[in-house]
């Protein structure tokens, strides 16, 4: 085989050559998948920082809360403190504020239920903030492979139409356009696999934090219950 012909064939199968000479439909799909991949990695790094911050905030607050002291003193230290008034700290502040408000209004019987509702609302807000952008990862993980497959099907369909028009097919003429079409599937998987992995990881961490918040709510509710007049002997 002519060395120059071999070099030309190798260049025709290079990734850059295949992408630059792909049909406009395949190129548009590759650009779309590239945007999805960049967006996916942005969300991944952003959520990794968010969950790391939430985990550290939970440890700091629990250390302060269970170290002892009056509830009023703990509340003064937590409220307005950006490092403590988040996650479980925000739930604590919401419950304590509502409990004190109800007691000042002589609604002791309803204070515990009101505090519990306030904590539930704070929990929903905190979990909602942690969930931000996770649906985007889920969408990329589920849609990207099919978008890539669409590009592959389109490329292969175009290849066979061209072969039919030329009425001849050789490996040298079929391999480049088929490889070009398969790049779209590769790009779809490249975008989807990290999104799927980190989405599942973040959901697991979210469930763990939510469980911690739920346990704290139950424990803090028991503490408040002991402070209601009905609980005193």
UniProtKB/TrEMBL annotation:
Q: Key word Cell membrane present in the record?
A: yes
Gene Ontology, cellular component aspect: plasma membrane
Q: Name one Pfam family in it.
A: MotA_ExbB
Q: How does it sit in the membrane?
A: Multi-pass membrane protein
Q: Which residues cross the membrane?
A: 24-45, 134-157, 177-199
The Gene Ontology biological process terms listed for this entry are: bacteriocin transport; cell division; protein import
Primary location class: membrane
Keyword entries, A-Z: Cell cycle, Cell division, Cell inner membrane, Cell membrane, Membrane, Transmembrane, Transmembrane helix
Q: Does the keyword DNA repair apply?
A: no
Domain MotA/TolQ/ExbB proton channel positions? 107-214
Q: Where in the cell is it found?
A: Cell inner membrane; Cell membrane
Q: Which InterPro entries match?
A: ExbB/TolQ_transport, MotA_ExbB_proton_chnl, Tol-Pal_TolQ
Functional summary from the UniProt entry: Part of the Tol-Pal system, which plays a role in outer membrane invagination during cell division and is important for maintaining outer membrane integrity.
Which PANTHER family does the UniProt record give?
Answer: PROTEIN TOLQ, TOL-PAL SYSTEM PROTEIN TOLQ
The subunit structure is: The Tol-Pal system is composed of five core proteins: the inner membrane proteins TolA, TolQ and TolR, the periplasmic protein TolB and the outer membrane protein Pal. They form a network linking the inner and outer membranes and the peptidoglycan layer.
- Family according to the record: Belongs to the ExbB/TolQ family.
Q: What is this protein called?
A: Tol-Pal system protein TolQ
* The organism of origin for this protein: Acidithiobacillus caldus
- The gene it comes from is tolQ
């Amino acid at each position: 085989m002519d060395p120059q012909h071999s070099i030309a064939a190798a260049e025709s199968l290079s990734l850059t050559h295949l992408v630059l000479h792909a049909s406009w439909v395949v190129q548009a799909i590759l650009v779309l998948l590239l945007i999805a991949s960049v967006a996916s990695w942005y969300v991944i790094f952003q959520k990794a920082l968010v969950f790391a911050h939430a985990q550290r905030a939970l440890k700091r607050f629990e250390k302060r809360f269970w170290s002892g002291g009056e509830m009023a003193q703990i509340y003064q230290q937590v409220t307005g403190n950006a490092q403590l008034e988040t996650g479980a700290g925000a739930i604590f502040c919401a419950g304590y504020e509502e409990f004190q408000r109800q007691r000042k209004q002589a609604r002791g019987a309803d204070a515990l239920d009101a505090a519990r509702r306030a904590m539930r609302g704070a929990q929903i807000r905190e979990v909602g903030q942690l969930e931000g952008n996770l649906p985007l990862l889920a969408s990329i993980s589920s849609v990207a492979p099919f978008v890539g497959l669409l590009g592959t099907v389109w490329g292969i369909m175009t290849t066979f139409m061209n072969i039919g028009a030329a009425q001849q097919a050789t490996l040298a003429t079929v391999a480049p356009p088929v490889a070009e079409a398969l790049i779209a599937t590769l790009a779809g998987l490249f975008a989807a696999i990290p999104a799927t992995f980190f989405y599942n990881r973040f959901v697991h961490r979210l469930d763990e934090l939510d469980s911690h918040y739920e346990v704290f709510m139950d424990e803090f509710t028991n503490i408040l219950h002991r402070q209601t007049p009905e609980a005193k002997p």
